[in-house]
Amino acid sequence: MKELVINNLHVSVEGKEILKGVDLTIHEGETHALMGPNGNGKSTLLAAIMGHPRYTVTDGTITLDGQNVLEMSVDERSRAGIFLGMQYPQEISGVTNSDFLRAAMNARRESPVSLFTFIKEMEKTIQALQMKEDLAHRFLNEGFSGGEKKRNEIVQMMMLKPSISMLDEIDSGLDVDAIKIVADAINTLQKETNMALMIVSHYERFLELIGPEYTHVLVNGKIVLDGDASLANKIDTEGYDWIYRDYNITPASVEPKKRPTVSLGTCAVSQQMRKGEKK
Amino acid sequence: MISLTNNTEITLTDGYSEYEIDTSQEEMNLSFIANGKAEVFIKIKNGNKIVLHTTANEDAEVTYLLWDECKTKISFEENHSVKRNAIVNIAYGEINQNEMDRNLRINLEEENAKASLSSATLTSVKKHYDINVTSKASHTFGEMKNFSVVLDGGDYYMNAVGAIEHGAIGSESHQTSRALCFDPEMNAKIIPVLLIDENDVKASHATSVGRVDEDQLYYLQSRGLTPKQCTALISTGYLLPVTEVIHDEELKNVLKKELEEKINKLCSM
After folding, report:
1. How far is it, in rounded angstroms, from Cα A9 to Cα A22?
2. Does any domain span residue A244?
3. B interface residues, A as partner, C-beta within 8 Å
4. Which of A217-221, B152-156, B259-263 is predicted least confidently?
5. Residues whose CB is less than 8 angstroms from the CB of residue A225 and which lie 6 or more positions away in sequence, other chains included
6. A79 and chain B: CB distance < 8 Å anywhere?
7. In this complex, which of A84, A107, A156 lies closest to B229 when CB atoms are compared?
8. Could you read off the pLDDT of A231-274 as tens digits, one per residue?
9. How far is CA A159 from the centre of its chain?
10. A83 domain residue, yes or no
11. Of A90, A104, A156, the CB nearest to B215
12. ipTM rounded to 2 decimals
């Protein structure tokens, strides 16, 4: 991929507008941090790029090297090189990690990957992420701890080698050591493949390890501020209040973050829905 | 593979054997008498009504795999008697597209008799099961595991009865039945029944009928799998537990391979 271009993107969920005109361009090899208070649309942006069926794009465009992403199905987007490391990965009983990963790898290849190559690659990746050896034979995310699920997302990313990876709070649920392991794996892959990265994270430590060149602040469905790595640092020490003040904006109301009951729902969405219920 | 004919009586001793049913007769009667540790693979290619009787004698252990490959409507009438310390394991593969009616009764007749049955069904037509496992003596054990994937146009009916009669102390009766649906145009019904007439027993049942979770599909798709590949992968994972009843590795692999091939074929249609 050369570039992913998002232009004037408006996204609604069940009639509620979450994104209100987002513009963003990401080039090959670049690392972008997407910041902003909870419930202001970060996860929605990533889910809309991936094509989650519950998210409706009402206006704007997304193109990948000129190709219209919005016309593609979710699986086509994945095969085109887009990857989303999810905040709440699904558990799928009966389907082993290895069967799933082999199928996913074969889906993007002309001829199927040989069993030997696959096993070698899988072993290498499991080792890099320091996961238990039996990972390949366990059912997909079933009974995994929060941290294991997140690491398994990175295992998948390493095996599928996307050209753009979007990681949605991939560091939450990871302890200090695991954050380092995951960040190392991401950096290694980026060096190897020159993939683009879009990171949503609340942890300065993780962002420090990944080292984003660009920072974007998403407030109330719009990117209100773009900057370099120093912007992420400033937000880490000073929070968002100065942005609201200096740019005269009001964030979407922030409620305590809860794990949504709809497993892939996001904060902005669940907030909008809760608001809707109250009315 | 030995072709079976009407009114055959077969005595099973230790070892693995394969049979085939390919008949146009109105009714075919078969009986098996198990004395040793036997694994039996029966492939049904053609038939109208199959009547199957088993007597598992003291200390015998018989494991069946009944694999339905018929193209036309078929019915089964089965009766399995399990004697002292004997075990009967039965696995059904109903991954074909013919109408099927199964009436099954397993009687745990003497102390320590055990029976495990499992069925794997993937269907877009009618598949009806009436099954009953009854404990008639003390310390017997019965379990049923039914897994089904019901596709567009499918009609799945599972009436599963686990019974423990008065006096069958220390017996257990367990059942799990699950139906997974991909399309709205289908019919799946599971009726779990426990009939317990004794106090000192263990019994359980678990049932679910549901559609594939939209978020699960999205998750798999987001890794590049087409909706059809997702269906096949989820179905395979769902139906594969049927092989757990089989202990023989060879037979287990036959079933797994056939299951995967059939599912992939059906799901790519």
Report:
1. 5
2. yes
3. 213-216, 218-227, 229, 233-234, 236-238, 240-241
4. B259-263
5. A216, A217, A231, A243, A247
6. yes
7. A107
8. 988 888 898 999 999 888 888 875 554 554 444 444 555 555 55
9. 16
10. yes
11. A90
12. 0.89
